[in-house]
Design goal:
Two copies of one chain form a homodimer.
Chain A: E1 2-10, H1 17-28, E2 34-47, H2 53-67, E3 73-80, E4 90-91
Family (chains A, B): Belongs to the PurS family.
Main location (chains A, B): cytoplasm
Pfam families (chains A, B): PurS
């Protein structure tokens, strides 16, 4: 079993209304000093086998054809170490 | 300027219908060997100042009170290195 994380974010040149809504709300809630907020998606995928090069190639294909809209979104694929699954509110 | 990433995921014991929908669609699309999929949110926050301990404490407070619903969601806060903002489809 291996965990792979796919992060999908809107491309920098694409307007992000969700992120803008968050950014505009922050000063009202007392949080200043935030220059920009972008909001995207995070997929945590548990593979049945190991995260070898073949499996990662399949995951990248999955991300490209299905999880991300590559016209407007960028994605990154990375293997997450088991120790990395920290609990609530942890800083890592 | 520093970039901080906040990942917000449903707690493991909370049902994730979005992730389940993705997981069920994968075999139909030709992707086998995926044991589980969880879908969450990723926020990329650009701070105007440095990501020092005080700033990170504020970001954690922001995540806890505003970005995550800590009844059902866990969050993690981490500083992202500038070199980490790789382009489309990169593996890191």
């Amino acid at each position: 079993m291996a965990r792979v994380v796919i992060d999908v974010m809107l491309k920098p040149e694409i307007l992000d209304p969700q992120g803008q809504a968050v950014q505009r709300a922050l000063p009202r809630l007392g949080f200043d000093g935030v220059a920009d907020v972008r909001q995207g998606k995070r997929f945590e995928i548990e593979l049945e086998g190991p995260a070898d090069e073949a499996a990662l190639a399949r995951v990248r294909e999955m991300a490209e054809t299905f999880l991300a809209n590559t016209v407007i979104e960028d994605f990154t694929v990375r293997v997450e170490e088991p120790a990395d699954t920290a609990g609530s509110g942890s800083s890592r």
